[in-house]
Write a structure and sequence with these properties.
The structure holds 2 protein chains of 2 kinds. By secondary structure, chain A is mainly alpha-helical. Chain A has 13 helices and 4 strands. Chain B is built from 2 helices and 6 strands; from the N terminus they run βαββββαβ. In chain B, helix 1 runs antiparallel to helix 2.
Amino acid sequence: MSWKLIESETTKPAKLLFNEPIEYHLTYKLMEEIPVADLFTVNNLWMMIATTMVFIMNLGFATLESGLTRSKNAVNILFKNTIIPAIGLLTYAIVGFNLMYPGAEFAGGFFGFAGFGLDAPEGWDSSNYNAGYTYFTDFLFQAMFAATAATIVSGAVAERVKLGPFITFSILYVAFIYPIVGMWKWGGGFLNTLETPFYDFAGSTIVHSVGGWAALVGAFLLGPRIGKYTPQGMKAIPGHNLAMATIGVFLLWFGWFGFNGGSVLSANPGIVSKVFVTTSISAASGAIGALFISYLKFKTYDITMVLNGILAGLVGITAGADQMSVLDSAFIGLIGGGLVVFGVVFFDKIKIDDPVGAISVHLVGGVWGTLAVGLFGNLAGMDQVISQLIGIGAVGAFCFTTAFLIFFALKKTVGIRVDEKEEIEGLDINEHAMRAYPDFASKD
Amino acid sequence: MKKIEAIIRTSRFDQIHTCISKLGVTFLSFYEIKGMGFEHARLEMYRGVAYEPTYIPRTKLEIVVPDEIVPSVIQCILSEGKTGEVGDGKIFVYDVLEAYRIRNNETGEAAL
């Protein structure tokens, strides 16, 4: 039933001067029928809004990563975070989309390919293609995910990776590895056809762990930044702009409403609104989890840890955002936020230098979130835990191996690390002949 | 003519400036400096690692004044710049040989 206001009048308008309440006489009339936009248009519109929200996550990564690193490397980080999404979108149009969604004939498989480029099928712009979106919305929403996955790596390898080899790695990884893994689940591949299907709603494993594994391999093969781990112990290398890092995390949190909310793949009011809530509750709990653990461990209120905790909460809820109760999502966030602090400490202990905590957020958080689908919420159960472990293991083995092969081949041929002088002077002036803040003297 | 160089706490600059303005000092320069001294920089923490910043930030004043007001300027800095904690700074006084005003070639104390 819809009511429409057809006329309204107020009495005693002059009394307004004397601060008396106005009596409104509103006349409503029941309308037989009010034309509404059809459901397909509404669905598609939401999917396009979600797409643009995922898009802005790339800016979030750019500001977060540059804020958490030194000013002498800011241009380099911004450059990578600009060029990688650009590459991700282009490769996804050329091969990625058709590798990830090769079609029904490849169901249950490990690999499929539906040909180069984009080719809108018959009825692409109507609900014949999908009830939730057109072909092009479908493509761009997924392409934004690919771009996001690709930018995860750059933070972990920051301040020492050579630009050319890094871009080469990113092209190969986002053009082939990411869509092949995505196909295993979202493209109808073997993880989707397990007896108890592997569940990953918006990509704790399919997106975040994929980036996280490459981050781990990259940081490991590069070695730590000069001066990070010395014979006298570990040294702090503070980021140059924590305000920018904070902006980045809030942009990512904002974008995540599109990342998870769009993964409903329609504007279904119930599921989308619930996903918004689980996403937010988990992010907020992640902040609290990281706050508690970092305070207990370090006795300081460390903003960078709280920021990482928010992201871990977001990564953690991503796998089961539509399957969790509000309380479940609070637990997932709380534990994820705590884990990220232990992760940062652990990777420092084994001397894997990750300037922004990308491995702890995306890999540790991603594995935790994927596993959590088997422990909390509607799908909880032993069968689901096993399926989740199969997914985590298969994706981990494939991503670790391929990332290792690519990085290792680059290391042995062109080298992946800048030379010592260049690293000390900063990548900005040596790789780009530019400075992010030319009016200020650098601290380093 | 004397040149007074003073390394002061940045937080005391306004009080010192007010005091020396009352003496008729209208021309001075000051800038942010980094240095070391008896004071230990406050320990900072970043992602669980404690570290001591390698420098202490201060403000440096450079004032050239006629001889007769030198003691009052120094008194201003001593009284207004003092907190009693380690790290209040230092004052150095130098003879100035010559001074010129670029606009009209005035020299000596007239140029101040």
